[in-house]
């Protein structure tokens, strides 16, 4: 269901008071970020996540990604932490423990909101028993989106928090230019043939791969100059993977069925793809004729 | 001891160079959904399927505008928007560096104009969507159904219902008349 997100009236929903950062602490934080010359210790707070984020955090400190080469180290107590990583959509029950961890960490500290749930609530954004994101209860410095964020995304987030890398994503607002037109896909191929090929590919290989394979097939048809079937056969012949070849053979059959088979087929294939489909009008007339004659017999 | 060192030297360095060198992502890796505002017709198919409602449509009927928006902070990178997009306007790229300091930077918006119904004058769909549908239907010159639909692309669903009802009534009269004549015979 399409949802248009409008904020609920305050009278309908209790909102917890958000913690604010003192000005002095803010200054100290900026100074720390500007000139940090030691390792940073991380404390991880699970506020009702699915554990996917935790698994990715632990794969970040494995030898392959090795966050410890930057001095980033996991610590078992918030009292030793410089960075607090909050995962999960912040369930109602985890609000107080999350605040205790926040208060337990010494100032200046950084708060990282980790994963789609931590950033905005993710799939649980409108759930009755979550607060929908870390920033609803405490001030957040860095948002790392992803479900879950990959180790590389995690390293990028920490590198950005520590000022090693710059931020790439920017807020964009685009306005439609008057008279702008969306380009038609495969305009030279009759629409019904295109749709039946796409459908058959989806039936064989699912949405993701079906779309890729039908795109490849339709591109071959579109590029073809005189003999479409020869090019399609060539496409099938050059496939190494028998599964791909099978899907392409099925698509070729759909294409053959769409062609008029009354002796004119060879000529039509030579002249390309134009108007080689049984037109809907004929079919409709045939159906109507048969229906009427049946009616007449009664 | 010597054996261990030899083994270590043979294995080499397993750690990736990532923050200091670009990272190669494997084929099929799902990253930031890239939206092409020109190919997009604002049909809301992606907003319909988006499991966490990261993609939303805000329809402002009084202004005659529809705003498509995506929040990367809520996106779970499932790729369903890519699957359903009829114009291939949204495609998952391999871009993964999405962390931000400011929450507003996670959002992307596109605003589209809406078309007025030629009968009642109310906004009913985006201009681009109506244009796209008209062009698709005009690709089917032999199709009676498509011709009828093409004649009604500038009409809102409510007025279209009225037109359909009128046509059905008309057809019933025609067919009914024919039947009566046949029965007389």
**Mean pLDDT over the residues of chain B:** 86
Q: What assembly state would you assign to the polypeptide chains in this entry?
A: heterodimer
Q: What is the N-to-C succession of helices and strands of chain A?
A: HEHEEHEHEHEHHHHH
- Give me the CATH fold name of the domain at 27-116 in chain B: Alpha-Beta Plaits
Overall 3D geometry of chain A?
Answer: elongated
Strand order within the widest beta sheet of chain B = 2-3-5-6
Mind telling me which CATH architecture of the domain at 27-116 in chain B this is? Answer: 2-Layer Sandwich
Shape of chain B: elongated
Kindly provide the name of the CATH class of the domain at 27-116 in chain B: Alpha Beta
Number of strands of chain B: 6
Helix content of chain B: 25-40%
Structural class of chain B: alpha+beta
Order of helices and strands of chain B: HEHEEHEEEHHH
| CATH level 1 name of the largest domain in chain A | Alpha Beta
- Overall pLDDT of chain A, averaged? 81
Major sheet description of chain B? 4 strands, antiparallel
Spatial order of the strands forming the largest sheet of chain A: 2-1-3-4-5
Beta-sheet strand percentage of chain B?
15-25%
Number of DSSP-assigned strands of chain A: 6
Structure classification of chain A: alpha/beta
Instruction: Indicate the low-confidence ranges of chain B by residue numbers.
Output: none
């Amino acid at each position: 269901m399409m949802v248009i997100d409008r904020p609920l009236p305050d009278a309908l929903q209790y909102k917890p008071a958000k913690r604010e950062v003192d000005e002095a602490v803010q200054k100290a934080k900026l100074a720390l970020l500007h000139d940090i010359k030691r390792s940073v210790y991380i404390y991880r707070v699970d506020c009702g996540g699915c554990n996917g984020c935790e698994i990715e955090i632990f794969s970040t400190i494995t030898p392959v990604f090795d966050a410890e080469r930057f001095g980033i180290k996991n610590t078992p107590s918030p009292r030793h932490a410089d960075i607090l990583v909050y995962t999960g959509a912040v369930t109602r029950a985890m609000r107080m423990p999350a605040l205790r961890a926040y208060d337990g960490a010494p100032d200046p500290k950084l708060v990282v909101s980790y994963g789609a749930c931590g950033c905005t609530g993710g799939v649980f954004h409108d759930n009755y028993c979550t607060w929908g994101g870390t920033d609803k209860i405490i001030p957040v410095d860095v948002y790392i989106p992803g479900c879950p964020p990959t180790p590389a995304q995690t390293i990028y987030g920490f590198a950005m928090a520590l000022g090693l890398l710059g931020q790439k994503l920017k807020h964009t607002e685009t306005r439609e230019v008057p008279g702008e037109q969306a380009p038609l896909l495969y305009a030279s191929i009759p629409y019904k043939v295109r749709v039946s090929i796409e459908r058959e590919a989806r039936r064989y290989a699912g949405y993701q791969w079906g779309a890729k394979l039908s795109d490849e097939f339709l591109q071959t048809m579109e590029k073809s100059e005189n003999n479409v079937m020869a090019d399609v056969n060539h496409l099938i012949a050059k496939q190494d993977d028998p599964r791909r070849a099978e899907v392409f053979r099925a698509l070729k059959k759909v294409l053959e069925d769409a062609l008029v088979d009354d002796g004119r087929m060879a000529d039509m294939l030579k002249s390309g793809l134009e108007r080689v489909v049984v037109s809907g009008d004929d079919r409709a007339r045939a159906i109507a004729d048969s229906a009427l004659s049946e009616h007449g017999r009664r | 001891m010597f054996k261990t060192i030899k083994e270590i030297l043979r294995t080499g360095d397993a750690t990736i160079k990532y923050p200091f060198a670009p990272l190669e992502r494997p084929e099929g890796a799902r990253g930031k959904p890239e939206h092409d505002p020109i190919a997009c017709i604002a049909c809301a198919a992606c907003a319909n399927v988006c499991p966490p409602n990261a993609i939303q449509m805000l329809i402002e009927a009084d202004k005659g505008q529809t705003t498509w928006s995506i929040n990367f902070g809520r996106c779970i990178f499932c790729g369903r928007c890519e699957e359903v997009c009829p114009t291939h306007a949204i495609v998952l790229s391999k871009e993964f560096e999405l962390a931000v300091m400011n929450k507003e930077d996670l959002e992307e918006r596109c605003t589209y104009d809406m078309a007025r119904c030629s009968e009642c004058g109310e906004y009913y769909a985006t201009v681009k969507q109506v244009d796209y549908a008209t062009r698709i239907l005009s690709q089917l010159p032999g199709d009676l159904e498509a011709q009828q639909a093409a004649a009604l692309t500038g009409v809102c669903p409510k007025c279209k219902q009225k037109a359909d009802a009128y046509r059905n009534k008309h057809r019933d009269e025609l067919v009914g008349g024919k039947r009566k004549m046949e029965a007389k015979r």
